[in-house]
Write a structure and sequence with these properties.
single chain
Length: about 140
């Protein structure tokens, strides 16, 4: 069944990267929409190159526009490399979190802890003061 060309164009105008979608997946979907638009309605490649980055978050959009690629293919390759860099940064940060070494307490910290323990023990071992009845007169 042939789709309505105006509907295809409207979907192309609204295309965004779906949460959890890889950059490769977005590129394939973007290209499929673009190529499905009939030639008499198809935006020029220059406009498609301006539209493509809008499907990403602000950081990715900025990085793509900053590099000023010459072709759509170059732009999509750059997008893939940006994603690869972001994934490797996240992996490194995650690995660093796991390898944080627990610092040994300093000798001063150990001494303070011992003193606190001793004070607690003294408080626990101290007998309760006896309350005397003021009305009692011993004989």
């Amino acid at each position: 069944m042939k789709r309505n060309p105006l509907q295809i164009l409207a979907e192309y105008e609204q295309i965004k990267r779906i949460a959890g979608e890889s950059v490769q997946g977005y590129c394939v979907r973007f290209n499929a929409f673009y190529n499905e638009i009939p030639d008499h309605l198809k935006p020029p490649v220059g406009l498609a190159m301006m539209k493509f980055p809008d499907g990403f978050d602000a950081n990715m959009t900025y990085q793509l526009r900053e590099r000023e690629p010459a072709t759509m293919e170059d732009m999509q390759k750059i997008a893939l490399s940006i994603e690869e860099n972001l994934l490797s940064k996240r992996a490194r940060a995650k690995a660093e979190k796991k390898t944080i070494v627990k610092e040994e307490p300093s000798s001063m910290d150990q001494l303070l802890k011992k003193v606190e323990q001793m004070l607690e023990r003294v408080k626990l071992e101290k007998p309760e003061p006896q309350v005397r009845n003021p009305n009692f007169h011993g004989q």
